[in-house]
Amino acid sequence: HTGVYVKKETPVKFLTDPQEVRSTLRPADVLVYGWIGRKHACVDLIGVSPLVGLMTGDFIVGQATLKAASSKIAKHEKSYSDNQHAFIPFSFDTFGFLAPDAVDILKIVQRVMHNNIVSHRFMKLVFKRISFVI
After folding, report:
1. Residue 62 in 3-state DSSP?
2. How many domains does the chain have?
3. Using CA atoms, how far apart are residues 107 and 112, in angstroms rounded to an integer?
4. Strand pairing partners for 32?
Protein backbone atom coordinates (compact mmCIF):
# COMPACT_ATOMS: atom_id res chain seq x y z
CA HIS A 1 0.00 0.00 0.00
CA THR A 2 1.83 3.08 -1.27
CA GLY A 3 1.31 6.46 0.28
CA VAL A 4 2.43 10.03 0.03
CA TYR A 5 4.15 11.26 3.15
CA VAL A 6 4.83 14.97 3.42
CA LYS A 7 5.93 17.56 5.91
CA LYS A 8 5.44 21.31 5.46
CA GLU A 9 8.11 23.98 6.01
CA THR A 10 10.79 21.45 6.81
CA PRO A 11 14.24 22.57 7.90
CA VAL A 12 16.80 20.79 5.74
CA LYS A 13 20.11 20.34 7.57
CA PHE A 14 22.35 20.51 4.51
CA LEU A 15 21.12 24.04 3.81
CA THR A 16 22.80 25.17 7.00
CA ASP A 17 26.21 26.80 6.78
CA PRO A 18 28.33 25.03 9.45
CA GLN A 19 30.39 28.21 9.93
CA GLU A 20 27.38 30.37 10.69
CA VAL A 21 25.12 27.74 12.32
CA ARG A 22 22.17 29.14 10.44
CA SER A 23 20.46 28.30 7.21
CA THR A 24 21.73 30.13 4.17
CA LEU A 25 18.65 29.04 2.26
CA ARG A 26 15.12 28.91 3.61
CA PRO A 27 13.59 25.53 4.52
CA ALA A 28 11.76 23.40 1.98
CA ASP A 29 8.10 24.38 1.66
CA VAL A 30 7.16 20.71 1.46
CA LEU A 31 9.37 17.65 1.95
CA VAL A 32 8.00 14.51 0.29
CA TYR A 33 9.61 11.37 1.66
CA GLY A 34 10.89 8.75 -0.79
CA TRP A 35 9.41 10.53 -3.80
CA ILE A 36 11.86 10.10 -6.67
CA GLY A 37 14.01 6.98 -6.78
CA ARG A 38 13.68 6.70 -3.00
CA LYS A 39 15.14 10.20 -2.67
CA HIS A 40 13.30 12.72 -0.58
CA ALA A 41 11.98 15.58 -2.71
CA CYS A 42 12.00 19.17 -1.55
CA VAL A 43 9.11 20.97 -3.21
CA ASP A 44 9.37 24.74 -3.46
CA LEU A 45 6.01 26.47 -3.93
CA ILE A 46 6.39 29.44 -6.26
CA GLY A 47 3.38 31.67 -6.85
CA VAL A 48 3.97 34.25 -9.55
CA SER A 49 1.98 37.14 -10.97
CA PRO A 50 1.67 36.62 -14.72
CA LEU A 51 2.02 40.37 -15.11
CA VAL A 52 5.66 40.35 -13.98
CA GLY A 53 7.82 41.60 -16.83
CA LEU A 54 4.84 42.75 -18.87
CA MET A 55 6.60 45.99 -19.81
CA THR A 56 9.71 44.27 -21.20
CA GLY A 57 8.23 42.62 -24.29
CA ASP A 58 5.39 40.58 -25.70
CA PHE A 59 3.13 38.84 -23.22
CA ILE A 60 3.49 35.07 -23.33
CA VAL A 61 1.23 32.92 -21.15
CA GLY A 62 3.28 31.15 -18.47
CA GLN A 63 6.53 32.98 -19.23
CA ALA A 64 6.87 34.48 -15.74
CA THR A 65 6.09 31.11 -14.15
CA LEU A 66 8.64 29.22 -16.23
CA LYS A 67 11.29 31.90 -15.61
CA ALA A 68 10.70 31.75 -11.84
CA ALA A 69 10.99 27.94 -11.89
CA SER A 70 14.23 27.97 -13.88
CA SER A 71 15.72 30.60 -11.55
CA LYS A 72 14.90 28.46 -8.51
CA ILE A 73 16.39 25.37 -10.16
CA ALA A 74 19.59 27.26 -10.96
CA LYS A 75 19.79 28.49 -7.37
CA HIS A 76 18.98 25.29 -5.45
CA GLU A 77 19.28 22.12 -7.52
CA LYS A 78 23.00 21.46 -7.03
CA SER A 79 22.78 21.82 -3.25
CA TYR A 80 19.90 19.34 -3.08
CA SER A 81 21.47 16.92 -5.56
CA ASP A 82 24.79 16.92 -3.70
CA ASN A 83 22.87 15.81 -0.61
CA GLN A 84 20.85 13.04 -2.29
CA HIS A 85 17.59 15.01 -2.41
CA ALA A 86 15.49 16.00 -5.40
CA PHE A 87 14.47 19.62 -5.89
CA ILE A 88 11.08 20.26 -7.49
CA PRO A 89 9.79 23.75 -8.19
CA PHE A 90 5.98 23.78 -7.98
CA SER A 91 5.45 26.95 -10.01
CA PHE A 92 2.09 28.46 -10.79
CA ASP A 93 0.70 31.85 -11.67
CA THR A 94 -2.38 33.57 -10.36
CA PHE A 95 -4.19 32.98 -13.68
CA GLY A 96 -3.88 29.20 -13.19
CA PHE A 97 -0.90 28.32 -15.39
CA LEU A 98 1.17 25.43 -13.96
CA ALA A 99 4.80 24.76 -14.84
CA PRO A 100 5.52 21.23 -16.17
CA ASP A 101 7.09 20.06 -12.87
CA ALA A 102 3.93 21.08 -11.01
CA VAL A 103 1.79 19.14 -13.48
CA ASP A 104 4.05 16.09 -13.03
CA ILE A 105 3.62 16.23 -9.24
CA LEU A 106 -0.15 16.38 -9.58
CA LYS A 107 -0.17 13.42 -11.99
CA ILE A 108 1.86 11.30 -9.58
CA VAL A 109 -0.42 12.24 -6.68
CA GLN A 110 -3.45 11.40 -8.83
CA ARG A 111 -1.96 8.01 -9.73
CA VAL A 112 -1.26 7.22 -6.06
CA MET A 113 -4.80 8.20 -5.16
CA HIS A 114 -6.37 6.11 -7.92
CA ASN A 115 -4.27 3.09 -6.95
CA ASN A 116 -4.84 3.29 -3.20
CA ILE A 117 -7.98 5.17 -2.25
CA VAL A 118 -10.92 3.05 -1.30
CA SER A 119 -12.98 5.48 0.73
CA HIS A 120 -13.98 9.12 0.72
CA ARG A 121 -12.52 9.45 4.23
CA PHE A 122 -9.10 8.29 3.06
CA MET A 123 -9.23 10.67 0.09
CA LYS A 124 -9.84 13.57 2.48
CA LEU A 125 -6.85 12.43 4.53
CA VAL A 126 -4.60 12.41 1.44
CA PHE A 127 -5.62 15.94 0.48
CA LYS A 128 -5.13 17.11 4.05
CA ARG A 129 -1.62 15.62 4.08
CA ILE A 130 -0.72 17.26 0.80
CA SER A 131 -2.72 20.44 1.20
CA PHE A 132 -0.33 22.32 -1.07
CA VAL A 133 -2.11 20.67 -4.01
CA ILE A 134 -5.48 22.23 -3.26
Report:
1. coil
2. 1
3. 9
4. 6, 41
Dihedral (CA of 38, 28, 98, 6) sign = positive
1 assigned to some structural domain = no
Instruction: Give the strands of the sheet with 6-10, arranged side by side.
Output: 6-10, 28-36, 39-48, 85-93
User: How far is it, in rounded angstroms, from Cα 113 to Cα 107?
Assistant: 10
pLDDT digit string, tens, across residues 88-107 = 888 888 888 888 888 888 78
Query: pLDDT tens digits for 29-78?
Result: 777 777 777 788 888 888 888 877 666 677 777 888 898 899 888 888 88
For the entire predicted model, the pTM comes to 0.66
Q: Which of 12, 44, 42 is nearest to 27 (CA)?
A: 12
